[in-house]
Fold this sequence. Notes:
Blueprint: H1 2-24, H2 32-117, H3 122-261, H4 264-274, H5 278-285, H6 290-315, H7 321-348
Helix pairs in contact: 1-2, 2-3, 3-6, 3-7, 6-7
GO biological process, one term: centriole-centriole cohesion
Organism: Oreotrochilus melanogaster
Protein name: CNTLN protein
Amino acid sequence: QQEKEDLQGKLKLREHLSQTAGKNEATPPPSKSIDLEMKQMQCKLKNSNNEITKQSATIKSLKNEVQEKEERVRELQAKISRMGRDFMMKRHLIEDLRSRLKSNQENEKTSNETLESLERKVKALSEDCSNKKTSIDSLKQRLNVATKEKSKYEQLYLKAKDELEKKDLTLTNLESKMIEMECAMTQLETTASQQLHGLAKQSGQALETVQKKLLLTNNKIEEFMTFVKALSRELQHSVQELRIKIKQAKKMRKVRACKKSLSQESVQLAASILNVSTIDLEEILEVEDDEETAKTKMECEKDKQWLQLIQKLLEEQFPFAAFLMDAIQEKLDEKMILVEEYSSLIKHT
């Protein structure tokens, strides 16, 4: 901020001096060196303003993080206090159950002694004993449940302790980072003031070279995109031509087979019955099946989807070379299969 104020004062002085010089003397306007110095001073001002805003934003974010951590620590402390109360309640319950168990055991001993002396009341006492046994079992089950809950709460307590220790470590780390950031800020300010003079000279040349490189790379990318699109269209067109040739070859085979099976006289007889010429009859025989038309539609749809896929791959972000290679390889394989099929058909015909 002090540097900023100094720079502003210098700027005002420069402006005042230039105005006074313009009023007093009838000489031409200030030289280019003064203008350059003015521009450099304005650049310094802008850079210092940007640095101040950045550092204030980072400090605010760090303060918010510290406040969040403190709130989290308070919540954890409240949870621990609740768990401690629960633990104490469970302990009291366990002691109560133990005392009850002891009293029940003493009652059982007295009942056994009375059983020996009073044989007549065996049935009643046996029923009482069975009832007491069931109550003891239920108490034992409760004890087991209580012990399990105790172990669970102990584990939770240990986990909470570990989390608290971790949070303390993170807080200390944050404080150390804050100190490091402040030191780095001071170093940056000193180095920035030293390097600004050199950077101001080099920035113009570097910007021009970067812009030229960017234009070249953009042109190259456009050329590559047009090449890939043209290649894909050519591939699709060649595959379509091969399919048409294969269909024509298949039709020729069918027609020749029909001609072989039918004699010339039977062909003429069929033409006379249908009241058409022999050439028209051959064309009727060459009509495509519904399956063939459906197949051609499916192939056209696949070709469209393939072209759309290549367009999508080119529009996507890097890297997409592997996917593009797979798509083109797929079409090349299809072309190879069609070429082999066409060559075999030509051989047979």
